[in-house]
Specification:
The structure is a single chain. By secondary structure, the chain is mainly α. It has a two-stranded antiparallel ribbon with strand order 1-2. Helix 12 runs antiparallel to helix 25 and helix 15 runs antiparallel to helix 16. The longest helix is centred in the first third of the chain and has 47 residues. The N terminus is likely disordered.
């Protein structure tokens, strides 16, 4: 009877402590009080509430408040415009205290400095903002997505420039071969017209420009030199991968704000997202049978100081899937309530389920220390260091106010859970913001299939046509010829007339030679003028035409990338260059680099002279 009474007293004490934690003001309740005090002009009360919020965060395991930091920065900006100096100073200090590594806050301050013509401070905040982008999972992921989209656009445009260069370099020879092929079946002026039309066959079949690029890759493959053939394969592979990578980037952009991934980010980064709990509550009502969701929402409840609800969800997670993480967090709840013996029991369960989970042994060592069992504490701590020395060293160097460490489901696991939910279709039909990435589905698109066909057909067509030979173009006068037009024993780079004039130098009349020189001079000047125009508007294309494949590829790609970056800065996901000042900075830098590159790769083309 006494034992039962003691158990009831212990249970009531635990529940009472959980209820006491639940009755504490949550961060979502403290921040409105701080903003209300600031709006009423009481900066001192606002600062007091902000300190209370940060102190509450330390006891709840919260490091940053990104949403509240952005709100404080916006309030500071508004107050500065209204001349409210005290409120502006409070907002600036509050933003730094709530999230010192917020990229959005840094970019907002850059906008303020730029508006006041203080460009040195603006640049400092812009660089600080871009540095902070790498310290935040969401901004880092969105920036990676933006960069990937920009790269894919630059690759596609470079491939188009390369295809145009192939057409200009080998188009006349291909038209000559088309005339020879059609000449065996029909006669008259229609042969030349049809031969020219065959160079643009996809357009006449109402296909898109990308199919014209693939078509040119196929028909010009046999004429191309070794470097150009390699580049045809490389661009075809990149274009085949482009839709898949674009689908992946769109999946990242859409999925990072899903409640599951948002909750996992908040849990792992110890950041407070006030909207995450509400969205997870809605989701878990639709999907109540996922253990990871219960772990995530339990961590969110714990951030709000509601240990009782967290305890329920941790236990529900353990019922659905008996995982080490659930038992670690249950043990932490008992630790917070000074029930160290029960905490050790939960930690032991976690250790048995996952011997490689270092934080289970670390938390166990902390609880054993509270029970004065120091020999066992040393053993557990040593084992934790053996499992994951770097993590344990980092934890011991920067101990939290909670002493023990919560288990946070990995963000990669959250992505997997979000994709599984999306495949069910229920949450997507209700909320409309669930997407998943399936490579097999993404591959099934016309562009990828067309690129794969190009890789297969280009060498196949070359093998078939190699038997009959390819037409060539004279490097002096530009006339085209094929094996039927000229002996195979003569030079492969000159037409018959140029062979007699420039190589054999035999008895050619002076009038014929003079007429040929005029023709050659006109052709060379036309080629030079054409290359200058192309280099002006399509930098790198002249290098392609001249056979300088590597220089043309690098020049065209880098130039197009900088131009794409200047055009897309601030227009994609809002992290690559958020804010007017940051976007303008990226634009200016990209344009300056594009102009410098244009000068270096275009001016040499202008300096070239005609050599007859």
């Amino acid at each position: 009877m006494k034992l039962r009474l003691l158990l009831l007293l212990a249970a009531s004490a635990c529940l009472g402590s959980l209820a006491a934690r639940a009755e504490e003001l949550a961060p979502r309740d403290l921040w409105p009080q701080a903003t209300s005090a600031a709006d009423s002009g009481n900066a001192e009360a606002a600062a007091k509430k902000t300190r209370q919020l940060t102190e509450a965060g330390k006891s709840l395991g919260i490091k940053t408040y990104p949403v509240y930091a952005l709100s404080a920065s916006a309030l500071s900006r508004q107050a500065a415009k209204q001349g409210n100096k005290s409120a502006a100073e409070w907002g600036a200090k509050a933003a730094d205290a709530l999230d010192p590594v917020s990229p959005a806050v840094a970019f907002m301050r850059a906008d303020d400095a730029a508006d006041s013509k203080n460009f040195a401070v603006a640049l400092t905040n812009i660089f600080r903002g871009f540095g902070n982008v790498l310290r935040n999972y969401r901004s880092r992921l969105l920036s990676r997505s933006d960069f990937l989209i920009t790269m894919l656009l630059a690759i596609a445009l470079t491939a188009a420039i390369f295809a145009i260069a192939l057409f200009i370099r080998y188009g006349r020879a291909m038209a000559h071969d088309f005339r020879e092929i059609l000449g065996g079946r029909m006669h008259g002026g229609s042969v030349s017209v049809l031969a020219f039309a065959l160079l643009f066959l996809p357009i006449f079949l109402w296909l898109g420009p990308v199919w014209l690029v693939f078509y040119w890759f196929i028909i010009f493959f046999g004429y191309a030199k070794r470097g150009e053939r390699i580049l045809i394969f490389v661009f075809s592979l990149l274009l085949a991968a482009a839709p898949v990578l674009l689908d992946l980037a769109s999946h990242w952009i859409a999925g990072v704000d899903s409640p599951v991934v948002m909750s996992a980010i908040a849990s792992n980064e110890r950041s407070y997202q006030p909207d995450a709990l509400r969205r997870m509550q809605e989701l878990i009502n639709i999907v109540p049978d996922d253990a990871t969701l219960h772990l995530l929402i339990g961590n969110l409840y714990l951030q709000d100081g509601n240990g009782q609800q967290a305890n329920q969800h941790y236990r529900r997670s353990a019922e659905l899937h008996d995982s080490a993480g659930a038992h670690v967090n249950l043990g932490d709840l008992h630790f917070f309530n000074n029930d160290f013996a029960t905490a050790v029991t939960e930690y032991n369960k976690a250790e048995a389920l996952d011997p490689k989970l270092a934080i289970a042994f670390y938390d166990d060592s902390i609880a054993l220390g509270e029970l004065y069992r120091f020999d066992q504490q040393a053993q557990k701590l040593d084992y934790a260091k053996q499992v994951d020395a770097s993590s344990i060293d980092r934890i011991t160097k920067q101990p939290s106010a909670q002493k023990v460490v919560l288990y946070h489901p990995p963000i990669a696991q959250a992505w997997s859970v979000s994709s599984n939910i999306a495949r069910r279709g229920v949450a997507r039909s209700l909320f409309g913001n669930y997407a998943w990435f399936d490579p097999i589905e993404s591959v099934r698109n016309p562009m990828t299939l067309g690129a794969i066909l190009t890789i297969l057909l280009a060498p196949l067509v070359h093998m078939i046509r190699r038997k009959t030979g390819y037409a060539g173009a004279c490097i002096k006068c530009g006339r085209t010829y094929c094996p039927r037009c000229k002996s195979a024993h003569e030079s492969a780079t000159f037409c018959t007339q140029c062979i007699h004039i420039y190589l054999k130098r035999d008895g050619v009349s002076m009038a014929t030679k003079r007429a040929k020189l005029v023709e050659v001079s006109g052709h060379q000047e036309g080629v030079l003028t054409r290359n200058r125009w192309l280099a002006t508007f399509l930098p790198g294309s002249a290098h392609f035409i001249e056979g300088r494949t590597v220089a043309g590829t690098i020049g065209a790609f880098v130039f197009v990338f900088f131009v794409s970056l200047a055009l897309l800065a601030g227009r994609l996901a809002p992290v690559l260059a958020p804010g007017d000042a940051a976007s303008m900075f990226v634009r200016i830098v990209a344009i300056v680099l594009a102009v410098i590159l244009w000068i270096f790769i275009t001016l040499p083309v202008y300096r070239r002279r005609v050599s007859v």
